[in-house]
Amino acid sequence: MPVRSYGVLKGQPVTGELRSSGQNKPHYHIKLGVSGKTFDIAVNVQSTDGSKVLYHVEHDFHPPDPDSLIKLPDGFKLLTRRGEAHPDPLAVDFIREGLVHEGQMHLLEIGIRASQNDLENEVDDLTNRIRSNPDAKLYAFGSQFPSGIHDIHMNQGDPRGSFGDDNGIYQDGALFVNLPAQNRWLAVFIAFQTQSWHTDDRGNPISGLSDGDGRDNREVTHAPRKRPRHGHPTRHGQPRH
Question: What string of pLDDT tens digits covers the 241 residues of the chain?
């Protein structure tokens, strides 16, 4: 079953900070205020269960349909994934749209200190850039939950017994940033090392194909990971998103 309530949240950040709760690993939380309502964008900047984080920040990004993004009103817009009835052309797919390639991704090791977390620093820098420019906008693609949006990462290629039930195409999460004064777009792409970059038309790994690191997908094994279907998701009891 693909991720639920897939869409895009657009707005001007109010605050951005690294937070953790109890034993939870830190997530970078971006607060957006839209029409008197506050939204929380929860960006995974660490992993806790052995599936290492991969990320790429594109400083010269060219979105497939920038005009449609600019015309979107602030707030959350539900996007119908391509392949379904009445597909939305704004739905994101890393692989099929060629937005980012596995070879561009940087590995963020588990347990790295927050002060050395380049992904956190990049997201913090982008947030501050938008806040200092009243014309700039942030676009967060992912899965809506009651108070905001999460799943801000690739949502396909997970192996069975993992988050495989959430696999799908044209439902990847990402952050896009528009800086009109500079006529510039930037983007943040996040994935997990356990995910395959060779997927079928349902977003499932294609058996027998090797990923960029040379591993065969059939050889990748991990302890089962579960997440609830309501509220904030977890990864081994810790937020993945």
Answer: 588 899 999 998 887 766 655 445 567 888 988 888 889 998 877 665 556 889 999 999 999 999 999 999 999 999 976 555 556 889 999 999 999 999 999 988 655 554 456 788 888 888 888 888 889 999 999 999 888 999 999 999 998 877 788 899 999 999 999 999 999 999 999 999 889 999 998 899 997 655 544 333 322 322 223 333 333 433 323 345 4
Helix or strand run (H / E) with residue 192: strand 184-192
- Domain regions of the chain by residue span: 6-219
Rounded to the nearest 5 percent, the helix, strand and coil shares of the chain are: 15, 30, 55
Structure tokens at 184: 């510039």
Q: Are 142 and 152 in contact (CB under 8 A)?
A: yes
Concatenate the DSSP letters of all residues of 31-67 into one string. EEEETTEEEEEEEE---SSS--EEEEEESS---S-HH
Q: With a threshold of 0.70, does the pTM exceed it?
A: yes
